[in-house]
User: Fold this.
Amino acid sequence: MSFVTDLFSAAGRVAVITGGGTGLGFWMSEAWVKNGGKVYITGRREETLKAAVAKLNSIRKGSASYIQADVSIQAEINKLASELSVHEKAIDVLVNNAGVAGYDPNTSDAPLATFDSEAWVRQFTLHAWAPAAVTSALSPLLVEAAKKGEGRGSVILIGSIAEDFWFYSWPSNGYSVSKAAEAALAKTLANKLIGHGVRVNTIKPGTFATEMNDASVSGTGAHEDSVKRNVPLKRNGAADDIAAIFLFFATKAGAYVTGQEISVDGGWTLVANGLEPAGGAST
Assistant:
C-alpha cells in the first residue's frame, strides 16, 4: 500500500451516512466502499435504500447495509443507535447528510418573501437539530473508535455555501438560515467532543445536480444557465468533488483537523455577494 493510499484508506473502518441513498450521501457511500470501508446508510424511503445498497454491494460484496430511519424524529434516532450497537462496537465516521430543500413564496412587488413556518421548522429540524441528536446518540460508538487513533471517530456535517449568501437571490431563505445554524452547531460539537478524541468538521457544497437540488425548479443553483452565469469554474460539482473532501475528513489524512469548514463550490462564494465573476454578473 502506498503512502497516500494508506493516508486515505477506509479499510477496516465503519461509516454511517444519513440520507445515504441518493445524491451526495450516495456518492460518499460509494467512495467509502471503493476505498475499502463498510457503510450503513439511513433514510426514510426503504425502496431507495435497498436499491442503493444493492449498487454498493455490487462494488464490493457485504460492504453496505441500510437502516430505515427518519432522523427528524427522536424515536427513530434511538432505533438507529440501538440497531447499530447490535452490529458494531465502534463507528469510525458519522456523516450528518440528511437534508431537505424548501422555497419561500416570493412576489416581485413584495420587499420580502412570505416565510413559510412549516418549511422553516422542517429545515431547522433536519439541518440543525437532527445532526445534534444523531451525533449525541452515536457518540459512545464514536468515542470508542477514537480510542484507536489514526483519525477514527470523525463526525462530518454537510452544510452549504448558502449560509454565506446574502446578495444572491437564494430561493430558500429558511434553508440558508438553517444551514447557518448548522455551522454554529458544528463548532459547538467540535468543542465538546475534542476532549474525547472525536473530530467534527463541515463540508459546504455549492451547486451539485442532485435529486434535492432539482435543476428543473426555477432559480435553483444546479440549473445549467445559473451555473454558467454564477460559478467561476462554470460547472456543477460531481461525485469525485465531494468524495475527495469527504475522504480527507473521514480518514487518517485528516487526523489533525477538527472544527473546520471546506467549501466545495467551484469558487461561487468568491463572487456571490455582489462582486462580478470574470465574464458575467453574479445575478
